[in-house]
Each structure stands twice: as C-alpha cells, then as structure tokens.
Amino acid sequence: xxxxxxxxxxxxxxxxxxxxxxxxxxxxxxxxxxxxxxxxxxxxxxxxxxxxxxxxxxxxxxxxxxxxxxxxxxxxxxxxxxxxxxxxxxxxxxxxxxxxxxxxxxxxxxxxxxxxxxxxxxxxxxxxxxxxxxxxxxxxxxxxxxxxxxxxxxxxxxxxxxxxxxxxxxxxxxxxxxxxxxxxxxxxxxxxxxxxxxxxxxxxxxxxxxxxxxxxxxxxxxxxxxxxxxxxxxxxxxxxx
Length: 241
Hints:
Blueprint (H helix, E strand, L loop, with lengths): L4 H15 L11 H8 L3 H13 L3 E4 L3 E4 L7 E2 L5 H7 L4 E11 L7 H6 L4 E10 L2 E11 L16 H8 L4 E10 L2 H7 L6 E11 L2 E11 L8 E2 L10
Antiparallel strand pairs: 1-2, 3-10, 4-5, 5-6, 6-9, 7-8, 8-9
Helix pairs in contact: 1-3, 2-3
C-alpha cells in the first residue's frame, strides 16, 4: 500500500531522530520550508508534525518551532535488549522456538492486557530463547494489534518477536520490573529444570509516545543471564532547550 505524504514526512523525521542524525534539542525546518521541500499543503505538514509530537519525538513550541525532544531524565536506565544480538555478542549461537501464537481478547478490567490493548485485540506469543541449543529464557508476550498491525502477518519463526519489534516499531518509553522467582510448571518443562528452580524474571512494557506496544515476561535461568544498568545523578533540564 502506498504511503501517504504526511506518513512519509513523519517517517523521514522519525528515522533521523531515532538514528541520532538529528540530536535532542535540534530544531526541525520551519513549516514553510517543509511545504516547499515536500510539495504539499501546510495541513499535511502539520499532520505529520502532530504525529511526531504524539509519539514523544518532538516538542512543538508556539512561535518558536519544533524541536527534537530531549529524553526523559531517570535516575537509572535499562535499555531494551535484543536477545538475539546479546547472545551472539557473547560468541554463542542463538535460536528461538515459537511455542504458541494466537489472537486473544483482553480479560478482566484489572488485567495488564486491558491496559495494553486499550480494549482492542492482542497477539499472544510464547517462545523459548536458546543459546548454543540450550534453554536460556521462556518468554510470554502480548502485543497490541491496534498499535502494531503488521505483526499479525510477520514471520516470527525467522525473527523472534523482540527482535522484530525493535527493528520495526520504535519505542520512546519503557518500564522494566526485575524479580527473583521459582520456575513454574510450564516454564520449567521448557527450561528443562525442576519446578521451583531459581530464575530471574524480567517484565517489561513499552510505549511509543502514549501508545502501548507490548508487555513481555521473560524467565531466565538464574545463572545464565544478567542485566546491566548505567546510571548517574539527575541533571536539571535546560528550560530553554
């Protein structure tokens, strides 16, 4: 399907921002210049800029213009890792087994998937990550189909869901929860350990602006994986930038 012009403009700047070509605080061309560059109406440019602002990628300031948004300041930062790349970086062979794939509806009003799907359909995925053909982590994931419609037809046997999402859907905010757990029956069977074996559980939610993308729960064998965070003192943001 042919991409509309405002989507092309949004995509062009989204790519530049997320790749680092445009730095935080850098000013985007003024609307008049974008109209001339893309040969479109001011309404089309405004629609593209509004989409970038909604995604949290730019700040629009009245009478000042649009600027690449500065990242939110947190006292501690955990990146969203690509397990395929992480395992290969350790010199190990990576593989993934897709165990379950089905469309589901949100459950109870208090359930995490209702918040994720905002009432819309969800793609439920279960899989097993392996390093050198040995179990590394059991994964249970929910993806908002409204937010990521292309994942319905994606070949997730060739690309694990996490890798596919990182390559196709830019995220702007993530929430990570880490805890120690004992392997449950279904997990232990796939991880090839006894029920109750100590494991590291990582739960993560990601958003693109205010739009939820995915919830994932990964259960790692306790001695097979670690997470590294880089942190420092908070820095007061420049009110002018």
